[in-house]
Amino acid sequence: AQAETLAETLRETLARRDLPVTDLIGPVPPFFARLRDRYRWQILLRHSDPAEFLRAVRIPPGWRVDVDPVSVL
After folding, report:
1. Rounded to 5 degrees, what are φ and ψ at 59?
2. Is the pLDDT reported for residue 22 higher than 70?
3. Structural domain boundaries in the chain
């Protein structure tokens, strides 16, 4: 539920601030969805300027942002 709420907030923020976005996918479970007895979700976003996007949104505590990930596994 938190991942869905955050994804919707991201979509609204992008639309409201008129930030160009290539793709916003998710939330989707990662390949290893459960790690150390916790379930994880991914929201994948491609944006031309990640720094601009991160300035525009508030990421909740406990969430991790990986800019330019080597892998999404």
Report:
1. -90, 125
2. no
3. 1-56
